[in-house]
Amino acid sequence: MKSLKDLEAIREKAKQMTGIREGKAQTKIIVGMGTCGIAAGARDTMKVILDELGKRNLTDVTVTQTGCLGLCEQEPIVEVEIPDQPRIIYGKVSAERARQIIANHIVNGNMIGEWVIGRK
Amino acid sequence: MPIYRSHVLVCGGTPCVLKGAKTLKDLLNKELNRYNLADEIRVVETGCLGPCDEGPVIVVYPEGTMYSRLQPSDIPRIVQSHLLKGRILQELVYQAPWSPPSAQEVPLEQEKYLGLQKRVVLRNCGRIDPDSIDEYIANDGYQALGKAVTTLRPDEVIEMVKEAKLLGRGGAGFPTGLKWSFTAKIDADQKYIICNADEGEPGTFKDRLIMEGDPHGIIEGMAIAGYAVGANQGIIYIRGEYALSIERMKRAIEQATAYGLLGERIFGSDFNFTIQVRSGAGAYVCGEETALIESLEGNRGEPRVKPPYPGVAGLWGKPTVVNNVETLANVPPIILNGPEWFRRIGTEKCPGTKVFTMLGDINNQGLIEVPMGITLREIVYGVGGGIPGGKGFKMAQTGGTSGGCLPAEFLDLPMDYDTLAKAGSALGSGAMLIIDDSHCVVDLLKSFMKFFVHESCGRCTPCREGTMRLYEIIQALAEGTATMADFRLLKELSATMQLTALCGLGQSAPNSLLTCMEYFADEFQAHLNGRCPTGTCKNITVKSDAV
To answer: Which of A60, B151, B214, B230 has the fewest CB neighbours in a 10 Å radius?
Structure first.
C-alpha cells in the first residue's frame, strides 16, 4: 500500500463485508422458513438468492427468514420489501424464479406480476 | 465476494472466553454445518461486547439480537430457531437492566445495551473481527494515519491533539499533546514511542479488552504518535498474563506490516515506523513508566528518579513518549474527525470519553465507555443497573486499588480528572469497584493494603516500610487492638508516603485509606472501640476500657 487511494480501495471492498452489521440496508428479502417452506425447497431458494446477490455484489440487500405465513401450498414464499413501495409477496419461488426475481425486481425494479400472491 | 445473510458475532473477550465462548463458537460452526448453513452465515469472533457478567454473549446480525448467559445446549436451539427459521429466541435475549424487556421495540439489542454510553475508543470493539485488518479498514481504519502523514506536518498533528485537550488515560491525566511536544522539539538520532499496556491495577481490564477487541486502533495511534514526535520505533509493553492481547497485537502488527502500514515509507512518505511487542513478567510497579523502561532495558523493574522524564531521556537514554493504550486509541478518531468533534464529547476541561471497568456489587459488571463528566449515580444506577440484592450503596472505589473511595454523598459528582482529584480520589485507570453496605471499611482496607505490601518494589523506604506499617495498623484495627495513637500514626504515615515515595505506587497507596478515614470516620471509631458495625471483623476483641 503506497497511497490513500490504495487504502480507499481496500476500504470499499471490505465495507461490503461488514455492511450487514450497520443496520442500514435498504431492501429486504424475506424467505418463509416454516416447516412447510423448508419442505417445499425454501433452503435452495435461499441459497440461490444469496448466490445471486453475491454475483451481482448487491451488498445493501438484507436477507432474512420468517415463519409460516399460512399459505403453505404457495411455499416457498419470498417477500420483497423496497422502501416506499408496497411489500410484494411471491409464491412458489423455485430456484429459477428466485434468480429472475433478483434480476427483474431487485435490480431493475420490475415486479413479476404473474408470481405475486399478495401485497401489503 | 460471497454474501452472508447473517453474521454471528461471538464475544472473544477474555471474560467470555473463560465462560466457554470458544466451545460455543466451535459448537456454532458444527451446528451450522449440520444444517448446511455455513455458506450463508458467517461466524466472527470479536472483542469484548461489554456485558461481561452476562457472558458468554453473541450478537446476531442483521437483527442485532444479543443473546447472553449462553450454555452449550442453547446453541442448537439458536441455530434451529433463529438462524434456520428466523425466529428470535426471546427467552435467551439479553435484557438490559434499565429498559423494558421488549425485543420488538428496539430492533438492535446492542443499541439498547449501549444506552448512556458513547463509544469512541470502543468504536470497533465487539463490532469487527480483531484478527481482520480489512474489517478495521472498512470502519475508516488507517485513514487518520494516512491523513496525518500525507497532509499534515508533525507539529500540526501535535497541535490537533493539544486542541482536543486529550488527557492521558492511564491514570495521571497529563495532557497528551503537551507530552508529545516535549519530545518532538528535542533533536535526537533515535526516539521511541512506548505503549504502556502493563495494566496491573486490580479490577482494571479495559486495556486488555481494547487490545483484544481493536488492536489496529492502538497500532494506528502509535504510528501517528511516532510521526508527530519523530520516532521510528514503537514498543508495546503488554502485561505477561495477557496472552490473548499479546497474540492479537502481534498478529495485527504482522498484518499492518504486510499492507505497508508499518515499515518504511508509509503511504509513500518519508515516514518509517515499526512496532515490537514486549511482555511484562508480572510486577505491578512496571506499569510505572520509568520502571517499565528499566524492565525493557533488561533491568530489575524499579522506578527511576524523575527528572529527567522519559520524554527527554527514556529508553536507552533516548527521548521516549510513554502513552497508555486507551490514550493512543483515542488519537486516530481525533485526527480523523478533528479536535472540535472530540471537544463536543465530555466536559470542557476533560473532553472525550472514559472507558470504565465496573465490578463489585453491581448488576451489570463489565466494560463501558461513557462521556467524561457523567455522574457516579448515572454509572451505578444507569449503565450499571444498580446494586443487587436490594442492598444500599456504600462507596465506589474509582481508579483501582490506588484510587480513593467515594461515599454516597458523592453520587452526583461528575466523573472527570479534576473533580475526582478534588474529592481525594482519582479517575485513574478506570476501574470502578462498587461496594454495598454489607462490607466493612477496615476489612476492605486490609485487603487493599496487603496488595501494596506485596507489590512495593522495595527501592524507596517510604513505600517499602510504609506499606507494611499501614497494613499492620489496619490489621490491628480489625482485631480491635489499635489505639488512638495508631490511628494518628496512620494519617502521618500516609502523608509522608504521599510526599516522599519515589513513584506513583507509594504515593497513591494511602489514597483509599485517607478517603475512608475522612468519609467513614465513625466506622474507624467503632473499631477503635472494639466493635465492627457490619460484623465482618470476626476476631475483633472488645477492650475493657471501651465498653
So the answer is: B151
